[in-house]
Amino acid sequence: MRSGMIAFCAGIAVVSQFPTLPEVWLFWFSGAGLLGCFRFIPYSLMATLIAATVVGMGWSVAIGTSRVEAVLPDYLEGEDFWIIGKVTGLPQQSGRAQQFAFDVERSCFALLPQDCPENSVVFNNRLVLLNYYGSNPMMPSQRWLLRVRLNKPHGFANPGGFDYEAWMMHQGFVAKGYVRENSFNTHLEDGGLSLALFRYRLRERLQQVTTDFSNDGIILALVLGDRDQISADGWTLFTETGTNHLIVISGLHVGFIALLWFWFADRLVRFFPALLLRFPAQKFAAIAAVAGAFFYSLLAGFSVPTQRAFIMVLVFMSGKILARNYPVSFAYCLALTLVLILNPLSVTGAGFWLSFVAVGTLLLAFGGTRRPHVNGVHELSIANEKRSFGWFWNAIWRRWGLPQWVVFVGMTVPLAAWMQQLSLLAPLANIVAIPLVSLLIVPLSLAGAALVWIYEPSGIFLLHRADELLTLLMWGLKQLSGFESDAMIWHFFGLNLASYCSAAIGTLLLMLPRGWPYKWLAAVLFLPLFFPARNIIDEGFAEVTVLDVGQGLAMVIQTANHVLVYDTGPQFSENFDTGEGVVFPYLRHLGVRQIDHLIVSHGDNDHAGGLKSLLTLLPVHKLTASLLPAAANQPP
Known about the structure:
Largest sheet: 5 strands, mixed, barrel
Number of strands: 17
Strand order of the largest sheet: 1-2-3-5-4
Helix content: 40-55%
Shape: globular
Number of helices: 24
Low-confidence stretches: 369-386
Distance between the termini: 56 Å
Structural class: alpha+beta
């Protein structure tokens, strides 16, 4: 059963690497043929694995094909037309615009809205991402008639960079655009109470009562998953210390909330013996844990990461609810399979790999361990009676330090693959930050957010305590990151598939039980990850790459011994430019750690907008420019 689920998931992962989607009927035909063959041949494990892989590939192709077919048609791209639908999710302020998700119910390709027929089916039942530059506040559940201009989801097509198009497809968006200024744009009606509207009202309420807080943006992120209010300096600090996973509603927080509800319900139900005559306390506790994880996921908008975390909690608690002793590996494989059945595109996102690798690493390292017994008494209890100082630190290391080290080692490969950097401070920072955030700050923030509706002073009191603890955490992280912070961030350059595979095998070797032979080979297997082989160009040849930066120019010319960059592309906003988002990731993908010569043709934004970021991220031996923008003249 477990091998079949792994094969099914592997089939989905294989399809994610296809450059184009094949015809789905090929997989259904192959699956039907395999089922027919099984009637005439005896059962074999290999045949089952092949069939499960084909089914997984077929399911992934079917879902991917439906997503592709739902994308904005070519004839509507760049054209103005009418849509009627509902605002969903939490609208965000993005510069001068309000950005929000819009669920299109009906659309019409006409000049005036009154000319639209009632049964128009131009572009219906789709989810689009819109920017609105008007003054009317966009609120969830509102229905609008809007004149829009849309484009297909697309991003920069460069190796090593962020795949924005894949992210849009993963989130379910089939188009992105903006609302055209038009006098016929009409707010039709306010929708009824919905989850998105409740989250919107709660965000407004929290913003009102936390205006004088030092960490109001982090509290919003922990309660609602709204990360847009966190400052750039804050994100930099969390990234440098490897604690950025704590400032989002991740699987870690959902899991801790489930454990908290499990513990509370397990203790509470014991005061009611009549209930225990019907069901054991653990069953009540497991149901409470699932309920707690579900409500916290709803509060976060039931986003893709929280859906994944809730499914994992549900699967792991189902054994207690159904009174079945499922192996941990079976529950893990079942959670993995359910997540990919619901959304096969999850396999293209970093969150999927980071969360499942973290949990899998802990299960592999600690899932089979048991405390030794001596005459029915734990040896740990005997050591506790001695009350020795060494036992105290040894217990802290086993409970908090060792798991952090295990996760740090296990997450090295996925962090290298998706983030291209690794914080060497992460194990030390997380030893303190994880219990502080998950056991104190998150419960205080959630309790305070709930009480502001019932009795505001008590809610503000709890939120103040959470803010004070966050201030203490930020101070500690700043002190920690102040010691040679640049040296404590390892950036990965020039990695390839062989580097990842070698390090992954080394990780598995380290996670095996103590005493396993040849574990020292892990050190050798990690070498290609930290010191990859660079692709050397032959003498007398040059490789010229014109990068996709939209309206602008950026070129990389590489020879056997030198790297020249010509122009750096535009700056799109205060938070994004192509120097950091396109040129640097591509150079990192090549394994380039230094630019020998950087030429900027002129100071227009579409050619020099990314210059300042590039100067900050990589050393430049020589800079040549005719005219630089004022911002680029400032030292990095």
